[in-house]
Each structure stands twice: as C-alpha cells, then as structure tokens.
C-alpha cells in the first residue's frame, strides 16, 4: 500500500528542524521528497556535526531526513539555482524556511518559482511571520517561545524565564506547514491553481495559548491593562520570574482572584513524587476535584457548603492540602497510585522520560516508536508518524540519505545527460556522495 500523497513531488529547500520536520511528515505520507543540500564546504559547519555518524548524518536527522533523496547543489552560483528551478518545474510543492531575505537573494522566492510552474504549492516557514515589525528577524525555537508567551519559571533558576524543554515552535510549525501544504494540494487538484502557503514558529507558539487567549475588550481591557502594568512594575522592582509568572496567572496586578484566595488549585493539576517515581494528576473539572479530595481526604473547604472561604479556618485548612497530598503520594509506589486513581475515575498517568519511550508498550502499539533497518548503522528506533490512515498508512520507505547520495539519480530524472552531469560535478555546482554508486536510484 502507498501513502495518501503518493505521486506528489516535493522540492525541499529546508534546514534546521521546523522545515525538515514538515517534509518528513509529507514523505511519511507517500510524497517523493527531493532534499537540496549544500555541498560540503559551501555552508558553515554545524556545531552538532561532531555527533555525526560514519556517513556524516546527525543522529536526529535519521528522523527528519527519512523518505528523502539528497542532492547537493551550490545555490551561490547561477547554474545551481537554475538546476533547482528545473526541479521546481517537475514538482508539486516547494518548501523553504530560509532566513529573511535569503530566498530573494537566491532568486527562489515565490514569484520566481511560480514563473516556471504556476500550479506549484509554495510553502514558506519563518520564525516571526511575514507581516509586522518583527518579520525580518532571525529566530529559533527559544526566541519563538519567548515572543509567544510560552516561557515558564526555569527549573534550574525560578528567577528567570525558561523555554519548555521540548521545541514547541519547531514541532507546531512543522505540523502547520504540512497541514497547509496538504490543504493547498486539495485546492489545486480541484481548481488547477497553485498558491503560496505561509506559517511561522511564532504563530505555532501563540496557538498553544488557545485555552486562555480570549478577551472581551469591553469587559476585560481595564483589568488586563492593570495586570500588565502590575507585572511590569514587579519586573522593574527585581521580582523573581516565578513570582511574576504566578501573579500573571492568578489575577489583576498580581492579586489573587476573588473566590479562589488561599485554595491551592495546583493540588489537582500537577505531578507528584511517589515512592519509586512520579505520577501526573489532571483534575480540571469540579467533579474530578471532588473525587480526588474525597479519595485523599484533603478537606478542601470549597466542597463544604457551610464553609466561609474567607475565614481563618478555611485558609488554614487550604494551606495543609498540598503538603498532605504530597506526603500521601510519597508513601506508595506509582503502580499503586495508577490503580487507586483509575478505580475512582480520576485522570492520572505515569511520568516517563525520553529514554523510557523507546520500549514502552503503549507507544510501540500505537506505532509512535518504530524500528527500521538503516544500511549504515543497522536497526534504528525512531519516532513514528502521528496520523493514522486505514487504507494508505504511512511508511518509512528509505533511510535518511547521506548528503549527495541521490545527486546522480535526481539529475537523471531531470533528463540531464551524463556529459552535463559530469560538467556540473567538475564545476563544483553539484556534489555526489562517493557511496552513491553502492545504492539503487529511487526516482
């Protein structure tokens, strides 16, 4: 069986993570990905190259470069740029995530590519978007997280903002780009019309705030402005970031919101240490909170109708809830708590680290951890595809190519003669991996 994008050819001009991740998703779904990379020595070396394997691949790139063909082209010379436009003529999609201004410098902007293939879907991924005062800024995931409101108090230093330990800007951006491309292909197949698709890492981070990014200006503007000013004043006074973060999450200008004063809502939505590990508890609604309160005998005053929540007794009882819950969880192992909470329909789960994911039965059965055989390093476990298709399942059809492995086969696919290919190699316009002769052409 072939994937749902079988027959779609993608010209991949991406780098870093967000762009290659988007084309990885498309390749998993059956698209043919022609990944254009710079020849050795043309681009500044990646500091991570010290972690490369015996054929020059970064460990993580075995994920994002699977199901792709690598052709090395020097885009700094006219012949190299013309070769890329030749690929664009035969492609359905072009994706790039160049730094601002690079596509224009190379003559590979939407207008240039559209001129040779009007029906092509052209996807651009940027750090900051394509409008507004920051559109020309260079950015990486940590910068997108900061600008998108995703920073949290640092786990090492709570006085400073810290990015989440997973690259949400990159990962959300790659998913949005792939979604946009697939939607544009559907439109093109109906109408014959190509178009430009744009998204950014920053937009993906802002999307993460979907639960709280709602404001009614007539009602909320005054308190929102007051809160922002209060937070700025706290920063100017040198307050630690965890204090500022909590103030922004709890009320106006750092004051607790009325009705929840003194009640540690975090008791119901947090991670607890157990006797042998950790368990996460997520009681977002009142019914679940009541069940956990009863199960652990926490004595939450909110659930006693006669209790005045502003009384000293209520506040004193509320202050004991978190230490009490922590002590109870610490007294039993994780397995006990999973069974105990499941029996009471209380949302909970194990806390796994990344290394545990490789052998975890649930992730294996859901094919989010898959195993392939790489011709250079043997069996490899890697992340699977997050979308499941009943009739056209995803597949890893080929391993990540070393740089330039497929240069010759791609040029032959374009119709270049052996003489022209030799000329491009001699002129250092293209580079072919020396191990390419040991593999079969895939196009």
What would you note in describing this structure?
This protein is elongated. The strands form 4 sheets. Strands 8-5-4-1-2-3-14 form a 7-stranded mixed beta sheet, with helices on both faces. Strands 9-10-11 form a 3-stranded antiparallel beta sheet, with helices on one face. A two-stranded antiparallel sheet has the order 6-7. The protein starts with 8 loop residues before the first strand and ends in a 12-residue tail after the last strand. The chain has helices spanning 18-28, 61-64, 78-90, 102-106, 110-116, 141-147, 168-191, 201-207, 217-236, 241-250, 286-296, 312-330, 334-343, 354-357, 361-365, 407-413, 418-426; strands at residues 9-13, 32-37, 68-73, 93-96, 121-126, 152-153, 161-162, 195-200, 269-273, 278-282, 348-350, 369-374, 378-383, 430-431. The chain has 17 helices and 14 strands. 39% of the residues lie in helices and 14% in strands. With 443 residues, it is α/β, with parallel strands linked by helices. Mean pLDDT is 89; it is low at 251-262 and 437-441.
* Biggest beta sheet attributes: 7 strands, mixed
Neighbour order of strands in the largest sheet: 8-5-4-1-2-3-14
Which spans of ≥5 residues are poorly predicted at pLDDT below 50? Answer: 251-262, 437-441
Q: Which percent range describes the beta-strand content?
A: 5-15%
Question: What Rg, in angstroms, do the CA atoms define?
Answer: 27 Å
Please work out how many helical segments DSSP would assign: 17
What does the average pLDDT come to? 89
| Structure summary, number of beta strands | 14
Separation, N- and C-terminal Cα atoms: 18 Å
Approximately how much helix is present in the residues?
25-40%
Broad shape: elongated
| Structural class determined from secondary elements | alpha/beta
